[in-house]
Amino acid sequence: MFKSLEGKTAIVTGASKGIGRGIATRLGEAGLNVLVVSRTIADAESVAAEIGPRAQAFAADVTSPDDCAAMAEAAVNRYGGIDILCANAGIFPSAKLGEMTAQDFEHVIRTNLTGTFNCVSAVLPAMKGKRAGRIVITSSITGPITGFAGWSHYGASKAGQLGFMRSAAIELAPWNITVNAVMPGNIWTEGLEGLGKDYVTAMEASIPMKRLGTVSDIANAVLFFSSEEAGYVTGQTLVIDGGQVLPETLAAMG
Ligand code: NAP
């Protein structure tokens, strides 16, 4: 159905675990070269080894513009260019207002929102040089659509990513670079597992499909936004949540 992406090059941040690992694996299966990025090089190396010889691990902290520039340089040196950026790295620590410090707030914004800006800025010279590119941001339903006590900073960062995306999509359209976002609901990942069993049980009950999502559910949507066929789609979002945002109340599920 879709033209092959074989031989194209993708950078996936936060690819050592969870959703990023799922995206990197899916793109690897589709025959892409994948730069597997996280701060912990050993974790990134084991994911790159799982994907195979087309994948390479790279250690970068997305809060550092220098690290992001080095990440882009590594992809260009190894693969000759960058076709796709999956700006996925993110954190979701919980803190209620009154306890949350300015440092807590800034840490989440710096990682999730400024980190997205840093990664996009770093890949632009390579993408503009080719006059082509696909940028896929991992946002969330939390912030753009829903709220959750303890995640005001996180929600602000995830809604902020979408504001960033819309203006970036306009600016980059003349270069044939698209910028879109996936908005996952609750996806089974190492990070989510850390929120505890009670959280997971409550979430499953509030999802019409009665299950958490898988990393493949998100990776398939990323693959679509990365495809040649999605070339006229930019500044758009796709919610992948098993219907979680639909019910007005638990009673609405019947
Ligand atoms: P996860 O399992 O905790 O994995 C996070 C990944 O990001 C790891 O590879 C981690 O590796 C990396 N990372 C964290 N901080 C980083 C930094 N400063 N620089 C570079 N890499 C960094 O998280 P996840 O659940 O897969 O979430 C991934 C993305 O999906 C996030 O943007 C999150 O907001 C979004 N999301 C998740 C869900 C969900 O239900 N899981 C729902 C909606 C949205 P290192 O620690 O080694 O750097």
CATH architecture: 3-Layer(aba) Sandwich
The N- and C-terminal alpha carbons lie at a distance of 37 Å
Report the principal-axis shape: globular
Helix content: 40-55%
For the largest beta sheet, what order do the strands appear in spatially? 3-2-1-4-5-6-7
Bound molecules: NADP nicotinamide-adenine-dinucleotide phosphate
Total number of helices: 8
Indicate the radius of gyration in whole angstroms.
Answer: 17 Å
Mean pLDDT score, rounded?
97
Number of strands: 7
Number of domains: 1
CATH topology: Rossmann fold
The CATH C-level class name: Alpha Beta
Low-confidence segments, given as residue ranges, are none
**What is the ordering of alpha helices and beta strands?**
EHEHEHEHEHEHHHE
Quote the beta fraction. Answer: 5-15%
Helix/strand/pairing category: alpha/beta
Quick one: CATH superfamily? NAD(P)-binding Rossmann-like Domain
Q: What can be said about the biggest beta sheet?
A: 7 strands, parallel
